[in-house]
Amino acid sequence: MIGPNMIGAGIGGAIMMAFGVSTAGVSGVFGLPMASNLFIFILAITIGVACSVGLQVLVRKPKPEKDEVTQNEDDLDFDITI
């Protein structure tokens, strides 16, 4: 999930750079009071989060069925005797 988060943050940061939005070194919710253009700042964060979540949905592995989980647990069953 690191990749989609990096891409989403990069897109949000690129939008802020393209419109010349500046903050005092703080981003996210804590940067709201210090943003030079509040509307573009919120828009960039929203678009970045939407891209990140969308990519995570595409990349995420599907949850295994209940039968697969029990079958995998049975495959890994072994005894250690001394």
Summarize it.
The chain has 82 residues and is an all-alpha fold. Helix content is 60%, strand content 0%.
Number of strands: 0
Q: Specify Rg, calculated over alpha carbons.
A: 21 Å
What is the N-to-C order of secondary-structure elements (H for helix, E for strand)? Answer: HHH
Structural class: mainly alpha
Topology:
Blueprint: H1 2-18, H2 38-59, H3 66-75
Give a verbal description of the structure.
With 82 residues, the chain is mostly helical. It has 3 helices and no strands.
Salient structural properties:
single chain; 82 residues; mainly alpha; 0% strand
